Amino acid sequence: MTCPHYKIKISSRKDGHSSVAQAAYQSGDRLYDERDHRTKYYRDKRGITHTEIILPPHAPQKYKDRNTLWNAVEAAEPNWNSQLARRFEIALPIELSKEASIELIRQHCLEQFVSKGMIADIAIHDPDPPGHNPHAHVMLTMRPIDENGNWMKKAHKEYVLDENGERIRTAGGNWKTRKVNTTDWNDPENAERWRHAWEVLQNQFLEMNGCTERICMRSYRNQGVDKIPMIHMGPAVTAMERNGTLTDIGNLNREIRETNHLISSVKRTILFLMDWLSEIRDAITEINAEPQTIYLAELLARRFEERKQERIVKWQSGYSIQTADQKDLKRFADIIAYMHETKVLTITDLQERFASLNSESYPIRKELKQINRQLNHIRKLIDCMDTLSRLAPIQEEYSKIFWKRRKEQFAKEHKEELKQWYKTNQYIKEHCRDGFPDLSVLKHRISSLEIKKQDLKASIEPMQSEMNKLSEIRYYVMDLIPELMPNNEPMTAEKITAKRESLLIRLDKAKEESAVRYNQQHTKIREEDKCTTLRSKSNEQTM
Fold first, then answer.
1. Can you give the three-state secondary structure of 170-223, one letter per residue?
2. 129 by DSSP, 3-state: which?
3. Which of 90, 358, 394, 454 is buried most deeply by CB count within 10 Å?
């Protein structure tokens, strides 16, 4: 099954990243970092099936060597907060062979990145068990290269001019300037373009290889899908859930899945029944030249009578027939009571009721999705705050170490904890501009949203119940309508008359079959009675 995973990240020195270390991790090579004079090698890394570096035509061939390339990138970035590389993590379709997947990611990099002047370092991973999660890691250079093979500046400053072409001074008396990027590689719209290009190219490869699967990289919101997205669990949480350990993210996903089922059930039922009603109205219009009023009670009465006659013809047990008749009578009474209560008496009334339910449920479904998004965000903030609180002692101890060798040793021993602390702290800074939120306020907000969510669910459940009742009406009358359905042949007067009379013919036929069956059973009973009488007389004569 195809997976739309296409994650883009930036490696930055301010976050403690090293492009040499990251290249060593994704490629499995042993690389020497000239910046800190250490060898980067991840001996436990497994499942690397393919690596390559693709250069633009004007790039020096020496950058085909991974060690040379990323040490050159590190040397070209002097600042403490320099952006070193753009990294991609892309899921590959399991339907494609290894060779096709390599060609797919290679062509994507050539068309979208290398053709623009970037250098692409590609590594394909297929961890154990093979075939369950093939994916590609791509690292791109952030600086352009000139025709002489030298690294260029990412941006330059230019003076801001007024309408007369004169320079403008700031309040401090300096000339006002602005930053101008050398390339458009950092354009925020690129992410959407790259994702769309990957969607198109991947679907082309799937089609060329005879696969019926297709992928869509757009979000549910952009697709117009009335569905709440699930939360990515990651390998650790997935392993815990697989072993039977319940997690907060797993519980949240189960809650989202339940809400999505409720929303989709209501929407799917409404759309399905409205399409069916539209077909019926078209059929009636074609046959009668103008819409005909069809009363649902008449159709239901005819249907339950047919069911009764069919049981008499086919069933053997009189007790079973009587029990089924009683159940049908109760169903018929319940449906008729509902129809009179809601004023749903004709096909037109049924269609109007569907439209009304759809308009009533839409704002509720929309609000449910919004509440789930808010809950997801708040719960992630709380989780981040818990993580920061748990890792704060390690971070404080790390920040208090001044000796370089000791600091590096501590960072090596607590690499994962420090990495998680930086990532969590960055998320809170991005989403909480006014500082760290109050934990009690967040929990109170969750409680109020949960109450509101339960109220919305309670308000939409009666609509689902009514949908089930309307579906039941459709189930009983649907077989009586196809007699009126149009076909591809022209409708003559004889065919129209035949279609109109077919319902009565079916009922008469059922009654005739019932009479024949009754006569057969009656004859059989008389013969059995006759045999019993002769047997008793014979016994009397013997005695």
1. CCCCCECEEEEECCCCCCCCHHHHHHHHHHHHHHHHHHHCCCCCCCCCCCHHHH
2. coil
3. 90
Mean pLDDT by 10 residues, the chain (543 residues): 79 87 92 90 87 92 93 90 91 89 93 93 88 89 89 87 84 83 87 88 86 69 57 68 75 73 62 55 49 63 72 72 77 76 74 76 80 82 83 86 82 84 81 75 84 82 76 67 44 52 52 54 54 47 43
Question: Can you name the residues that pair with 158 across neighbouring β-strands?
Answer: 178
Q: Please report, for residues 302, 311, 412, 453, 531, the alpha-carbon distance to residue 528 in angstroms, rounded to integers and kept in the order given.
A: 36, 24, 96, 68, 5
| Bridge partners of residue 6, in order along the sequence | 90
Alpha carbon distance 49, 294 (integer Å) = 67
User: Could you give the CA distance from residue 296 to residue 346 in angstroms, rounded to a whole number?
Assistant: 5
pTM: 0.50
CA distance 291 to 281: 7
Q: Take residue 403 and report the two structure tokens written for it.
A: 């000796």
3-state class (DSSP) for residue 353: helix
Question: Can you list the alpha helix ranges (DSSP code H) found in 400-438?
Answer: 404-413, 415-431
